[in-house]
């Protein structure tokens, strides 16, 4: 592979353009190309139309040397990928009897007789090497069209593509010299800070070339991707490690984890490391905090259970919330959140108690207590009880409010635990938002 060459992923399928299915194949291939050190600057999606596939090809060969197609290899008339590629490069489609025999054998195992339409899958562009499909009927191709252009095709079925990629395509790419030094990546995760605020804190680091540092956000979690070109994991760590440490020092408690860690797994690790337990009392979240915590195997080590106290009667009889407080302050209030947290902590005899009460909408809001107002309570082992007031956007909808408030509850617990146990952090940073204290 020469300097400056790169790959382009081309996904074929009208169902992708219509939004009927998620383009998970492009995500998988993008990740794999980065891991192999193959530059990849563009992706394209095109419908099942031969002239449009030609148009995409015209653009792609002007800016990439390795063209990776997914989709359009099936037996139906709208599966046009190979025919379009062959016509574009002005070569005929040639039947491979061994592929047709393989298709027939696979159908026979299922006691099905293939139709003539299936025979179409045995025709490949002249000069192309078959890319075997061990679990499906549609093979792909490995085709060095010229010294400067290589084409690889895969079916659109993700499990078929992944098997074909790992077993045949990757060894082919290595053999052909496409794979350079791999790209090692680390994802740093943040909560309680906006993407713009985080970018300000690390602005000078965003201009590094190795490792590169890039921010991106999704559902409240802000991420920084650190990527290093290196010849070994040890070399990558030497490049990434110092930058990661600098970022963590600058961002303090806004940083909560890296790579696959979530707020729930981080909270679980903290509880386990301290030998502590947790219970939850939930109203508007409807059990969402407990669901997040129990999504991790082994969470029974630290999570004992909870109460979904949706009705005021449950708050009173199961959690010991004062009827007077409910009447005077309302169910959505800091005081009720405190009493719920205390109540669940005492009822379940846990070190920590977490509560949530609020208005997820779209109805139920008032001028003083709008949709999106959430109170989170924390009862600590020390006996201290505090609340956090979260105000979500009513325009984002009920599920968004619930989802973000659940994450905020886990984050508030994480911060509170770390502040109350200074040995867990190098420095103490108070949680963001309005802290109502005792």
Automatic annotation (TrEMBL):
Residue ranges constituting the MoaB/Mog domain according to the UniProt record: 8-176
Gene3D superfamilies, per database record: 3.30.70.2860, CinA-like, MoaB/Mog-like domain
SMART domains linked to this entry: MoCF_biosynth (SM00852)
Pfam family, one: MoCF_biosynth
Signal peptide (residue range): none
Family listed: Belongs to the CinA family.
Protein name, per record: CinA-like protein
Naturally occurring in which organism (per UniProt): Lyngbya confervoides BDU141951
């Amino acid at each position: 592979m020469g300097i400056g060459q790169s790959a382009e992923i081309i996904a074929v399928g009208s169902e992708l353009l219509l939004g009927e299915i998620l383009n998970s194949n492009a995500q998988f291939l993008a990740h794999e190309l980065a891991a192999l050190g193959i530059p990849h600057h563009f992706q394209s999606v095109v419908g099942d139309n031969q002239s449009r596939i030609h148009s995409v090809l015209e653009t792609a060969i002007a800016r990439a040397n390795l063209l990776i197609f997914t989709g359009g290899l099936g037996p139906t008339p709208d599966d046009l990928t190979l025919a379009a590629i062959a016509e574009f490069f002005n070569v005929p489609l040639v039947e491979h009897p061994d592929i047709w025999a393989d298709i027939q054998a696979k159908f026979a195992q299922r006691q099905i007789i293939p139709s003539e339409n299936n025979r179409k899958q045995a025709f490949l562009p002249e000069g192309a090497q078959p890319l075997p499909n061990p679990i499906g009927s549609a093979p792909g191709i490995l085709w060095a069209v010229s010294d400067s252009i290589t084409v690889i095709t895969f079916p659109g079925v993700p499990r078929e593509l992944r098997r074909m990629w790992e077993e045949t395509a990757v060894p082919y790419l290595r053999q052909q010299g496409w794979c350079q030094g791999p790209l090692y990546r680390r994802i740093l995760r943040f909560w309680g800070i906006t993407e713009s605020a985080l970018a300000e804190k690390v602005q000078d680091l965003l201009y590094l070339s190795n490792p590169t540092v890039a921010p991106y956000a999704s559902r409240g979690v802000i991420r920084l991707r650190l990527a290093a070109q290196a010849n070994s994991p040890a070399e990558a760590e030497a490049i990434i490690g110092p930058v990661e440490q600098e970022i963590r020092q600058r961002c303090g408690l806004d940083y909560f984890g890296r790579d696959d860690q979530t707020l729930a797994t981080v909270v679980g690790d903290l509880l386990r490391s301290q030998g502590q337990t947790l219970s939850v009392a939930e109203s508007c979240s409807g059990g969402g905090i407990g669901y997040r915590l129990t999504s991790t195997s082994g969470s029974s080590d630290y999570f004992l259970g909870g109460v979904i106290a949706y009705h005021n009667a449950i708050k009173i009889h199961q959690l010991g919330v004062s009827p007077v407080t409910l009447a005077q302050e309302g169910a959505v209030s800091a005081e009720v959140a405190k009493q719920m947290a205390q109540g669940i902590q005492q009822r379940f005899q846990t070190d920590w108690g977490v509560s949530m009460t609020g208005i997820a909408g779209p109805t139920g809001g008032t001028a003083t207590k709008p949709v999106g107002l959430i109170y989170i309570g924390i009862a600590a082992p020390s006996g201290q009880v505090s609340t956090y007031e979260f105000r979500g956007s009513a325009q984002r909808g009920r599920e968004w409010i619930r989802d973000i408030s659940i994450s905020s509850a886990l984050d508030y617990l994480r911060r509170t635990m770390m502040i109350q146990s200074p040995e867990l952090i190098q420095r103490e940073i108070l949680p963001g938002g309005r802290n109502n204290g005792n």
